[in-house]
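Hey, sorry to bother you again with one of my protein questions. A protein chain has come my way and I'm curious about its shape. I'm sending you its amino acid sequence along with the backbone structure tokens. I owe you a coffee for this, so here goes:
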Amino acid sequence: MSASDPRPAAPRAAPALPGVAGNPRRPCVRPMAGWWLRNPYFVRYMAREGTAVFVAAYALILLVGLVRLAQGEAAWNGWLAALQSPLSIILHLVFLVVFVFHTVTWFEVLPKTMPPLTVGGKRVAQSAITAGAIVVAAGASLALFGIVWGLTR
């Protein structure tokens, strides 16, 4: 075709993708099974994310309690009796351990997700931010516990 030819140029065919007929190259396929097991950082990350399942399970337990409360005193007392069984107590101890891990690792992520904090021209250490957040959360939890305790007496 010359420059003086008024016909438009034919569209060029897109190159064939790897793994598609007509392309001799093989696609790069990275194995995904167990990718997180190869690095301790990702093992801890996946463990933290896995604790969300326990949080959801406990939310369901509390939701069942709310439904039982709405069903009347007998249903509520039955739910409370179920919570006092040895299996339930062991389950609650497991929940406690998992929730403490979830809370601590959640607060460890906090300084990585916020803008740098400077006090007196110096950057505050990540460990100080984490410790401060845990102390504030523990103080707020104790205050709420005290308020509820005082209201129920």
